[in-house]
Amino acid sequence: MSQAETLRKLHQDHLTDYNRQEQQAIELIALLNKLYNEKDVQVTLFGEPLDTTSVDNVLALHQKSAARDADAKAVTIEDTLAIAKVLAESDVTALRVDAGQLTVNEGDLNAALQNVASDASAQNEATDIVLYGFGRIGRILTRLLLSQASSSKGLQLKAIVVRPAAAGDLAKRASLLERDSIHGSFSGGIRVDEENNGIIINGRFVQVIYANDPSEIDYTAYGIDNAVVIDNTGKWKDEAGLGKHLQSKGVQKVLLTAPAGGEIKNVVYGVNNDTIGDDTIVSAASCTTNAITPTLKVLNDEFGIENGHVETIHSFTNDQNLIDNYHKADRRGRSAVLNMVITSTGAAKAVGKALPELGGKLTGNAIRVPTPNVSLAILNLNLNTAPESADALNAFLRKMANSSAWQSQIAYTDSTEAVSTDFVGTKHVGIVDAQATIVTDNHATVYIWYDNEVGYSTQVLRVATQMAGIRYTQVPA
């Protein structure tokens, strides 16, 4: 066989194999949507939701999973499809199954399902969600909530509250949701319902309410009751201000997407979400606090952190000026797109609220830089127990990133080519950059990338889910 014939055969074999995988992905997507809609059963791959709107994304996620750990078994589309078929034939509900962990650890799904059979009648009732504010985080939350298959259970986005505006506001709001300069076009259908003052997103009607203050709103008049309000405005950060939401008819709980003051709990999901209890007002802390706290926790548990400093290289935000102009805060009046701007950050202090054992041990500063999204936290830590080497520390962090306990909060990259735009849109909260790790005696420097919009928003929704009383049995446990 000539070289040309060999290459033609190789090309055909690869194409045939990919076409087979495409058909399996199409079958898998249909099953996943049915499981979610009818049984409230979700299938993830190493903590990452499978995008049921894109065959290419499902295949790419499986391909990427093969690079997680060179020593572990790769997870194929056939593996996940087989798991989905077993779930479709079972009678369990309110379940989250990680196909990646189950496959790699050679778990027995049938045996696991027998153990959760007693929960077969479990149901997660629908919980109304109201987004108070519709800026960067508000729109990302909307995308995340409405990009998955429709369901009568779980978090249901019912309304968006914004300040009163001029004619044409609805169309502008819809356009900002549909077109995003950072995250691209919304994958789905969006249209304005002027008559009912709302936006229809992927077939679901979302009411737009205009108000200057929560006290003006009666949500029950819009068919909304026992809602969780996610306040994205940052206008109120204490109980007196956020408590206004609870005075509105139809509201049961409030979640703030910014660090809170006073006695309000600052929660980093995966670290201290077990402290929420029956709290009616909770803070999801900040994007930086969420990005660094999980890694700080595992490092402290393993090596002990004596003290340290956190430097955040943070993308500019809306509160800065495009060009030099008056700003009440120091330095932030200078052009965000032309300058690196040193500013303060409460992230290091906030870590102590989520992780009390590190209270008072960390200092922090931030440098706002001329990029619109994805930030980088640099952890300079003095450890009680010195790692053997940078490789040993990286091996530990990779193990944590691959564990079922931390896979949703900690990710890991060993690429020598990784740059900030590679992490736009990642749902992982913080990504350890192994190439940058430095260890000198008991001093360690760890670099953590994070999408300060999407990564943080996934954490916000995890906290909201818990506050709503929604529970899932995890398989594997």
Automatic annotation (TrEMBL):
<dbReference type="Pfam" id="PF02800">
    <property type="entry name" value="Gp_dh_C"/>
</dbReference>
<dbReference type="InterPro" id="IPR020829">
    <property type="entry name" value="GlycerAld_3-P_DH_cat"/>
</dbReference>
<dbReference type="InterPro" id="IPR036291">
    <property type="entry name" value="NAD(P)-bd_dom_sf"/>
</dbReference>
<dbReference type="Pfam" id="PF00044">
    <property type="entry name" value="Gp_dh_N"/>
</dbReference>
<dbReference type="InterPro" id="IPR020830">
    <property type="entry name" value="GlycerAld_3-P_DH_AS"/>
</dbReference>
<protein>
    <submittedName>
        <fullName>Glyceraldehyde-3-phosphate dehydrogenase</fullName>
    </submittedName>
</protein>
<keyword id="KW-0560">Oxidoreductase</keyword>
<dbReference type="InterPro" id="IPR020831">
    <property type="entry name" value="GlycerAld/Erythrose_P_DH"/>
</dbReference>
<dbReference type="InterPro" id="IPR020828">
    <property type="entry name" value="GlycerAld_3-P_DH_NAD(P)-bd"/>
</dbReference>
<feature type="domain" description="Glyceraldehyde 3-phosphate dehydrogenase NAD(P) binding">
    <location>
        <begin position="127"/>
        <end position="287"/>
    </location>
</feature>
<comment type="similarity">
    <text>Belongs to the glyceraldehyde-3-phosphate dehydrogenase family.</text>
</comment>
